[in-house]
Write a structure and sequence with these properties.
With 395 residues, the chain is of the alpha/beta class. The protein has 19 helices and ten strands. The chain has helices spanning 18-30, 43-52, 71-84, 96-106, 116-120, 122-136, 148-159, 161-178, 194-205, 225-235, 246-257, 261-273, 281-291, 301-307, 310-313, 317-327, 336-346, 352-364, 384-393, and strands at residues 33-36, 58-64, 140-146, 184-190, 216-219, 242-243, 278-279, 334-335, 368-371, 378-381.
Length: 395
């Protein structure tokens, strides 16, 4: 199998993640799920795999909303995907309520969704659409919305904080109304932490809500050793590239890439393109070091740019940059007191709680891990490969 890093994958090309998918499905039996992870960890592949291989008795509706900039466009995406499934209910009714509502508002059958009267009635149409799906589908339904936080950010940027608050609260109200039946669940996913958007709404727009406190929060991280072994077999063994000491090779691949599938693919792609017939564990180190200066590879630039955009809105960008710069030079966990001392040495800190709050945001945003096994808080980068990149490019 040819490695295809950063490419759109589907079907048999999406390797592994069975353990994570099984866990998500168990959670969805109970409640809706908010799935978070750093960019390029494989969230979209997980959603695609779940959509292409649904559980018995479930109908998945998968929508991509990264470019959506108004709530009605989200309604449009869900409607289009649901309509394309050609689902039929035992009652012989499908999407009848939302179609009737649309016709009553616009005076015509469903056509464009950007007409002014349609845009202004997005709450009613979203409610009727979810009602149709929940009540008239034979199976249970999971509505999977990828890049949900980016959509909310777009709505706030274009239409103000009030529009963002209203959208989040409306969706929560809909979940509260329809989820008790067990007929419908939501799986919201994104690489921008929704907590950043919510904190901005609270700080700048007086938001008082907690829009996801009824959802399970799940974090997608690196792959298991079993999945790393599967990827090495597919991308190397099946391409005629022999691994010296396969067990050691796979462990080294897991350790150096943190099990992040895109970087495993990049390493394997380089082996494939160089026509290698044999590779050793040390070759993984060599290829990753050679790749670190490659501008064609995205690496963690998006994570760095997020500090200067979303964190800046919260007034936390300088503190976050200092924390990450300091921790990028440390492989092991660093005590919170040492982090506080370093940040104080770099800037005026009026209150240590400002630094602690920034550490909490970085934890929620998948930059850092926190260890409390010693009885005090200690921090390090979540991913060693991110720390390595940060030390070279931002340290």
């Amino acid at each position: 199998m040819k490695a295809n890093p950063a490419g759109a994958l589907s079907g048999q090309a999406i390797l592994g993640r069975q353990r994570e998918i099984a866990h998500l499905r168990r959670e969805l039996e109970k409640k809706s799920v908010l799935l978070t992870a750093e960019r390029r960890v494989g969230k979209t592949c997980v959603l695609r795999k779940m959509a292409e291989n649904p559980s018995i008795g479930w109908t998945p509706i998968l929508c991509w909303v990264e470019s959506v900039r108004h709530p009605i466009e989200c309604v449009e995406r869900i409607y289009a995907e649901a309509n394309a499934l050609h689902v039929r209910s035992p009652k012989g009714v499908w999407l009848g309520r939302v179609k009737s509502a649309y016709q009553a508002i616009a005076g015509t059958q469903v056509a464009g969704w950007k007409l002014p009267p349609i845009r202004s009635e997005w709450k009613r149409l979203l409610h009727d659409l979810i009602s149709d799906i929940a009540e008239n589908t034979g199976n249970r339904v999971v509505v999977m919305i990828d890049e949900f936080p980016q959509m909310v950010s777009n709505i706030v940027d274009d239409h103000g904080g009030a529009a963002g608050r209203e959208f989040l609260d409306t969706l929560r109200e809909i979940r509260q109304e329809f989820e008790p039946s067990g007929r419908i669940r939501f799986l919201l996913s994104g690489s921008i932490g929704l907590h950043l958007i919510v904190q901005h709404l609270k700080a700048e727009h007086g938001y008082k809500g907690n829009p996801t406190n009824d959802m399970a929060i799940e974090r997608l991280s690196g792959m298991t050793i079993e999945d790393v072994q599967l990827m090495c077999r597919k991308y190397l063994d099946e391409e005629g590239i022999r691994r010296d000491c396969p067990g050691e090779f796979d462990e080294r691949m897991l350790q150096l890439t943190d099990g992040l599938p895109i970087y495993i693919q990049y390493v394997c792609e380089r082996f494939q393109e160089s026509k290698r017939q044999q590779v050793s564990p040390d070759d993984v180190d060599v290829e990753l070091r050679a790749m670190m200066d490659n501008r064609e590879i995205e690496w963690f630039r998006n994570a760095a740019e997020r500090i200067e955009t979303y964190y800046k809105r919260l007034g936390a960008n300088r503190r976050a940059s200092a924390i990450l710069k300091m921790l990028s030079g440390e492989e092991d966990f660093v005590p919170e007191e040492a982090v506080l001392d370093y940040v104080r040495s770099q800037m005026i800190v009026e209150d240590d709680d400002q630094v602690r709050s920034t550490l909490e945001i970085l934890l929620d945003d998948n930059y850092l891990l926190c260890d409390t096994s010693t009885g005090r808080r200690r921090y390090r980068f979540r991913y060693g490969i991110m720390r390595w990149w940060w030390k070279i490019n931002r340290g």
